[in-house]
Write a structure and sequence with these properties.
Blueprint (H helix, E strand, L loop, with lengths): L14 H7 L7 H21 L2 H28 L1
Length: 80
C-alpha cells in the first residue's frame, strides 16, 4: 500500500542529516595548550615534590576519610 498524501507523525531522519546537525566540538588553542601544560606538570609532580608528595597524599586521604564519615552521618540522619 502506497501513501502519497501528507505524512503523519515524525519519521526518523537519515543518519547523514543528524550528523550535519550535530555541533562540532573544537577546542580553542589556549585550552589545548593548558591541557598539555597540565599533563606535563602532573607527569613531573613526583620529581618536583619528592617525599612531600607522600605527606600531601596522606593528608588528602585523612581529609577524604573525615568527609566520608561526615557524609555517611548526614545520610543516616537523613534516612532515619
Amino acid at each position: 500500500m502506497r501513501l502519497d498524501g501528507p505524512k503523519i507523525g515524525i519519521l526518523p531522519q537519515p543518519k547523514t542529516e543528524r550528523i550535519k546537525k550535530m555541533k562540532n566540538l573544537e577546542l580553542s588553542e589556549p585550552v589545548s595548550q593548558l591541557l598539555a601544560f597540565s599533563a606535563v606538570i602532573v607527569a613531573f609532580l613526583p620529581f618536583l615534590l619528592g617525599d612531600q608528595l607522600i605527606l600531601i597524599a596522606h593528608s588528602l586521604m585523612n581529609e577524604g576519610g573525615v568527609m566520608f564519615d561526615q557524609f555517611s552521618t548526614y545520610l543516616v540522619g537523613l534516612l532515619s
